[in-house]
């Protein structure tokens, strides 16, 4: 991800949450590629966002329970 995009995303989302359904969408997109357990899923999303998104257990497991 180019630095300009990374800075834009960081500035735009560092002070607020993602839009509703964003986490679920990221989870589904990730799991479409390969099955992963919770920790690996969090790490993949973190790497894919260049460390901009830090998903915690308190967010991940409720999102997974929707499925």
Please tell me about this protein's structure.
By secondary structure, the protein is mainly α. It is 64% helix and 0% strand. The relative contact order is 0.16.
Report the major sheet.
none
Please tell me the total number of domains: 1
Helix-strand pattern: HHHH
Count of alpha and pi helical runs: 4
What does the average pLDDT come to? 79
Unreliable runs: none
Beta-strand fraction estimate: under 5%
Q: What integer value in Å does the Rg equal?
A: 12 Å
The dominant shape is: globular
Distance between the termini: 29 Å
- Percent helix: 55-70%
Q: Count of DSSP E strands?
A: 0
Main structural class: mainly alpha
Keywords:
single chain; 67 residues; mainly alpha; 4 helices; 0% strand
Topology:
Elements: H1 3-13, H2 22-33, H3 38-48, H4 57-65
Please summarize what this structure is:
This protein has 67 residues and is an all-alpha fold. It has helices at 3-13, 22-33, 38-48, 57-65.
């Amino acid at each position: 991800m180019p630095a300009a995009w990374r800075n834009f995303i960081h500035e735009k989302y560092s002070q607020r949450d993602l839009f509703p359904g964003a986490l679920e969408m990221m989870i589904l997109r990730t799991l479409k590629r390969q099955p992963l357990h919770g920790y690996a899923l969090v790490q993949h999303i973190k790497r894919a966002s260049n460390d901009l998104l830090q998903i915690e257990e308190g967010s991940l497991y409720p999102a997974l329970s929707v499925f």
